[in-house]
Amino acid sequence: MLSNTHLALRSQVAELLQQISAQEMRLKKLRAEWQSLQLQLDAIIYPVSTLPPEIISEIFAHCLPAVLSGNDAVNTAEAPLLLLQICSQWRRVALSTPRLWARLAIEVQARFDCVSDIAKTWLNRAGNCPLSVRIEGPICDIKEFTAFSKAFRRHTREIRSLDLIVPRDDLETMDMHHVDFPVLRDLSIGLLGHEQFDDFFEDPIEMFHDVPLLDKVHLRHLPPDLIALAWQQLRKFTGEFYEFSDCTEALRLMPNLTECAFSVYQTSRDIYADEPLSHPEMRSFTLFRSGKRAPEPMACAADFLVVVTFPNLKTLELVEVGDYVPMDLHNFLTRSSPPLERIVVRPGMERGPGAVDLSSHTFRQSHLTEVEMWYPACDFTEQFFECIRDNTFAPGLEKICFHCRYRPDEDHAALVVEMAGNPVTERRRLVGVAQLRAFHVVAAAGTNLHLLKDLTDELRPFKILKEEGMDVFIGAEDGSNEV
Q: pTM of the full predicted structure?
């Protein structure tokens, strides 16, 4: 016979086992519910995991930065390298998507010890995709230069865009190797060290002399006579840090050029003694001051207009060159008598365009559709808005854009708005001219817009014009539209 104690213990054990079984059943039920909810949650939070690799690959392509940070693509905080760190699926898709690796930009000095490995890995992942390659720095000094050179030459047949910023000796070394660029369309070469123009190569660089698809060239510190190119086929050209003679030589070498930009410096020659040059094919011409320091002082850049004529010019841009004589610009436009459609005048911050003759022949032509003025002087602004009330002034004008400077002691954008309301409204309603479709007043980044916000009455005409369908923007370039 079992004692009462034994019976009690057995009863307690049985009761505990029953409770454990019940808890296990409950736990099993909770786990099943958790798994079901987790599957639903995963599908909601990570819908990309349900997409086919082709769609994920397309999404990844849109993740590539528009502008490379520090001009270097080897950045683990940006695509494509960032995509390799998320999960194994993303890594597989990214590595099997060649176009993610089709843009290689390396700053040699920042990655001196591993440039060769990076180039080989990156270019191999790109497969047969058209490549965009940018290399800045002393290439010949990197470790395993031979391996790098082989990897580069192996892929030159896929390079569509090439930008080299290298020392002169490196360019000569590269020129010694025979390479083909059958699909190269865009070539940019700059020399490090700001070598003087009288201390260049004994012979012109030949490695790009037979590039059948080359269409666009940008040369920095490298005059045109020091590189062999198929000049006749070029349509777009930029020459940076050029003397007047380099500019005129470039224009003579490229009779089919339609777009051209020059950063000009000159210190000793009398440009009025230069032989005049006409270029009938030119459609867009820009004079600009380079953001980098030139080997010689920049001077007289816009005076280049004295020696050229572009009878079919449609766009003229003067970017941060404020040294022109108003009469020289007037004579250039009159002499060329171009069907000019767009004019952009962007002087340095220290001065605004008062040096544009609004009474000139250009502003009486129906071809002119767009005027863009940067940092306009107050008297010019007042004169401009008085002129647009007249239907003989730029009768084809459709877009006006004023970029305003920023100074702590004034709100230039507010001043333009105060002047512009009634004249712009009148112009919009004016008979016998093209309808004004766009009016922009763009304040410099960092401008305090409180004065603009307070111009309730002055902004009202622009609100009405916007409601009518006109493209109106009044605000900072890094801010919202106040209209």
A: 0.82
